[in-house]
Design a protein that fits this description.
Strand content: 25-35%
Largest sheet: 4 strands, antiparallel
Helix content: 25-40%
CATH superfamily of the largest domain: Rieske [2Fe-2S] iron-sulphur domain
Strand order of the largest sheet: 5-6-7-8
Shape: elongated
Number of strands: 10
Length: 173
């Protein structure tokens, strides 16, 4: 009979039996102890330290990439102020070659350094232009003249060999 009275009193408080027997208080769950916070901060800092060490070790042992030599155009093939598009060093890397004077050719990656839109040569303004966000690059050195791009275009290093222009390297700033 004693258990009936206890059951009746529990119904009056309207708290289920599991709440009475469960030892964790929901009010205490919201707070993080200093020990838990310190443990989290130490483990996070250690993880970031190990990640930076990994980056340092990889940079110490990585060698500079070597690029293939690829014939881009024949000398005299492009008129002064003319443009030729090609791919270098892979088929997915589009580049632009511009003949700026009788004996001078310049070549850059055609991918804008802002959001990778294709740049084109504007002969009237003598600059490379990105139509997506109005970014302008110098034809002389690929530096940013105006717009959102913050880095210059990667320059394709060209060599003249036996009447041909050969791409031999990529120079990034």
């Amino acid at each position: 009979m004693n258990w009936l009275r206890r059951d009746a009193s529990r119904r009056a408080t309207s708290d289920p039996l599991w709440k009475e027997e469960f030892s964790v208080r929901t009010a205490d769950e919201r707070y993080v102890t200093r020990r838990q916070l310190t443990k989290f901060l130490v483990l996070t800092s250690f993880g970031m330290f190990v990640g930076n060490l990994w980056i340092l070790v990889r940079s110490m042992f990585s060698k500079t990439p070597s690029y293939p030599q690829q014939t881009v155009a024949r000398l005299g093939e492009i008129p002064v102020g003319g443009v030729k598009l090609f791919t270098y060093p892979t088929k997915d890397d589009h580049c632009i070659l511009v003949r700026t004077s009788e004996n001078e050719h310049v070549s850059y990656s055609q991918k804008c350094t802002h959001l990778s839109c294709a740049v084109y040569y504007s002969q009237e303004d003598n600059r490379l232009e990105c139509p997506c966000h109005k970014g302008f690059f110098s034809i002389a050195d690929g530096s940013v003249l105006q717009g959102p791009p913050s880095r210059p275009l990667p320059k394709i290093i060209l060599e003249s060999r036996g009447g041909e222009l050969v791409a031999v390297d990529i120079k990034t700033s």
